[in-house]
Design goal:
elongated
Length: about 60
């Protein structure tokens, strides 16, 4: 069985086995979602949007 986490929290590398994780800029994702919500609430959103956040897999012993 493989286990993987999200957001590469600092203790992920300290668990046994070390937890593989997907790392991304959580603040940027939150900012994008807030902008999308604000646009929808003000009526300035013209179409539904999809945002793909840059991410990377940090492979550790749990996979």
């Amino acid at each position: 069985m493989a286990v993987i986490g999200v957001d590469d929290f600092p203790s992920a590398a300290l668990t046994v086995p070390a937890l593989a994780t997907v790392a991304f800029d959580l603040h940027e994702v939150g900012r994008e979602r807030a902008n999308t919500i604000a646009a929808a609430l003000t009526g300035s959103a013209t179409t539904p949007s999809t945002t793909v956040a840059p991410s990377r897999v940090i492979d550790r012993a749990s996979t």
